[in-house]
Amino acid sequence: MDEVHLWSIPLVGDAVLLQREWELLDEQERARAERFHFERDRNRFVLAHAGLRRILSQYVRTSPASIRFELGPYGKPELAVNVAEQPWRFNLSHAHELGLCAVRRGGRVGVDVEQVRAEAWESVSIAQQFFTAGETALVLAALEETRAETFLKLWTRKEAYLKGHGKGLSMPLNEFAVSLEETCIRYPLEKGGEERNWSVHELHPAEGYIGAVALEGAGEFAFVEKRLEPGG
After folding, report:
1. Do residues 175 and 188 touch, judged by C-beta distance below 8 A?
2. Closest Cα to residue 79, out of 60, 94, 99?
3. Same domain (yes/no): 75, 12
4. Is position 127 within any domain?
5. What is the pLDDT, as a whole number, of residue 171?
6. Count of domains in the chain?
7. Which residues does residue 221 pair with via DSSP β-bridges, in sequence order?
8. Is there a domain that residue 172 lies in?
9. Does any domain span residue 229?
């Protein structure tokens, strides 16, 4: 059984912690952090990416600051050096005060997390613009008080799959379909086919958040939830 580790990363910290985490980042990460207009967003980025380094250091047995990344053709980061015969694969997402990192050995992985908010009207508008007709119908059919949650369950599944593939939004969201009841992905949509080498799974990493993880490969998966303690 393929084991997938799901790490929660708290994105709150005082000035001392933020400075310590800042020192773990490389020049590229620091440059990205400095582009944020709001200090709150910059701090969350720093904590998320330093947290990722702390997590990965436990797998590759090196210091967090020594970890090096390389980017795929669409910008997805991977470890620059493979470990043993199979590389550790990972993906990071963060929303509001929570980061979520998925780590596995072997196949590709994608993860997405979103904070649940009540703007149902916005959910409908985005679904109508980017979702398939069937997915949009699911959002519209949901009760008003659960519509935003229904939308996010679909959105995180789709985002996790795109991030796992490494193509990001270069693959339009309406070219494949996900389900609230199944782990399969229908792709390519117009041919009625199914992506048999990927599955997507719903996550509830913390109260008020919804997430999803997409995994390459057939078979069964064991999910292990972990939490990175602040600065640890």
Report:
1. yes
2. 60
3. yes
4. yes
5. 81
6. 2
7. 2
8. yes
9. no
Range of the domain at 15: 2-112
The Cα 17–Cα 22 span in angstroms is 8
Residue 94 burial by Cβ neighbours in a 10 Å radius (0-12, 13-18, 19+) = buried
Q: Which of 63, 81, 112 is the last residue of a domain?
A: 112
Q: Classify residue 126 by burial, with Cβ atoms within 10 Å: 0-12, 13-18, 19+.
A: middle
Answer yes or no: do 6 and 53 share one domain: yes
Written as tens digits, the pLDDT of the chain (232 aa) is 789 999 999 999 999 999 999 999 999 999 999 999 999 999 999 999 999 999 999 998 899 999 999 888 778 888 987 555 558 999 999 999 999 999 999 899 999 999 998 765 688 899 999 999 999 999 999 998 899 999 999 999 999 999 998 877 678 899 899 999 999 888 766 666 667 789 999 999 999 999 999 999 878 899 999 999 876 6
Query: Which CATH number do you get for residue 106?
Result: 3.90.470.20
**What is the pLDDT, as a whole number, of residue 198?**
92
Statement to judge: residues 15 and 101 lie in one domain: yes
Q: Whole-model pTM?
A: 0.92
Question: Distance (Å, rounded) from C-alpha 156 to C-alpha 113?
Answer: 6
Q: Could you say which of 62, 80, 112 is where a domain stops?
A: 112
Q: What does the CA dihedral 151, 153, 158, 161 come to, rounded to 10 degrees?
A: 170
Q: In what order do the strands lie in the sheet with 221-227?
A: 88-95, 98-105, 2-10, 221-227
Nearest by Cα to 167 from 142, 195, 143: 195
